Amino acid sequence: MPPLDLPLLAKPDVLVVGGGTSGASAALAAARDGARVVLAEAGPGPGGTGTYGGVHSYWFGRREGHAAAVQRTTRLAHRALGLRGGIGAWNIEAKALALHDELHAAGVDIRYDTRAFAVLRDHEGDSDSNGNHTRVTGVALAGPDRPYATTAHIIIDATGEADLAAWSGAPTVHGSAATHTTMWASLARFEEPGVTRNQFGGLADLTDPADATRAVLAARRRSPEAHDHGEVPVTREGRHLVGETVLTLTDQLTDRRFPDTISLHFSNHDLKGKGEALWPQLGLIPPNLELEVPYHALLPRRVDGLLVTGKALSATHDALPALRMQADLENLGAATGLAAALCVRDGVQPRQLDVSQLQKRLRHDGLLPEPATPVS
Ligand SMILES: Cc1cc2nc3c(=O)[nH]c(=O)nc-3n(C[C@H](O)[C@H](O)[C@H](O)COP(=O)(O)OP(=O)(O)OC[C@H]3O[C@@H](n4cnc5c(N)ncnc54)[C@H](O)[C@@H]3O)c2cc1C
């Protein structure tokens, strides 16, 4: 393919691609820490699966730290819009407005209706002294009226599908490594104005344009009585990063501790589809667990300049169900944004970051509890 000849329209410290559950939080945390941040989001506003995807409530997850702050601002937006009642199930426009106002106040350069379609790399082929083959230096974006390039010191892939990691040549896998099955996807169903529901609509591969279109049409046919549908299908699981650390169900069942934990997640283990690991096949139903997510589960192999956050983090198909809840991914996103800001400040690549400094900050900011037991 010929090299892209695009105008360079921005050079922030941190570029976040995907302004959904994890990406909006990442952009906020990085900007609040002083980084110059551009946020590129394909949809018309922030929040991703939790707003325009129609998934309007928390389910499990640790609603502490950054997630608690998001809840507070969503509640205020509800009141400001004159909506009554609690936010057990939030109004998706209220949450999108709350997130937008926070991003704007933090000084994030926000680009909606802007889709990343390629990565810019500085070299290919040769390994550097760290054994890395390539460094992502920027992203090609399709804005509302034209394509352009943006370069950044650190780029955060919060697309939920590890798009940038895959395009950079980092190892990724779609769903289960054995069969590529995923958890069920959904096209939001609006039963009446403002009232959304999930749809248990089978599988959808959003990395395959034809299958993404098929999934939309199939979902619309499935509920013709609905008042309206969401614009885009949302997946519980798509393409995963196969990163420096890969989280597995065995790690979870054996309560594995990591020296580089940056986020704690909590959920049940509802596979929403078919499992592949031996444990469920032997009849074991995993209990609800509190799980550590290490920094190295965000690091792509052989690629520098990039952190992958959100549900595309490096975890197997069987490990993801308990890691993917919105409150937890909001906290993980904030931790990722802070990591990026620290990399900028220290002038280092993500894999050179002093993770103990990041952990110290996360504990100070209430994003990471003190370890209950020493790391073995
Ligand atoms: C049907 C369903 C039901 C669920 N139910 C619950 C529940 O009840 N409670 C709960 O807590 N969790 C629930 N979850 C899980 C949770 O909602 C998700 O795990 C979480 O929202 C994913 O966050 P994310 O940041 O990884 O992705 P998303 O929130 O999906 O964000 C990804 C963003 O990236 C953007 N994007 C993608 N590609 C590009 C690109 N190339 N360029 C620019 N932007 C791009 C998208 O537009 C999107 O905004 C559910 C998920 C689904 C799908």
Automatic annotation (TrEMBL):
Gene Ontology molecular functions: 4 iron, 4 sulfur cluster binding; metal ion binding; oxidoreductase activity
UniProt keyword annotation of Amino-acid biosynthesis present: no
Pfam family, one: FAD_oxidored
UniProt cross-references to InterPro entries, sorted A to Z: FAD/NAD-bd_sf, HdrA-like
SUPFAM superfamilies according to UniProt: FAD/NAD(P)-binding domain
Top-level division of the source organism's lineage: Bacteria
Tagged with keyword Kinase: no
Keyword annotations from UniProtKB, A to Z: 4Fe-4S, Iron, Iron-sulfur, Metal-binding, Oxidoreductase
The name this protein goes by in its record: FAD-dependent oxidoreductase
Organism: Streptomyces coryli
Classification lineage: Bacteria, Bacillati, Actinomycetota, Actinomycetes, Kitasatosporales
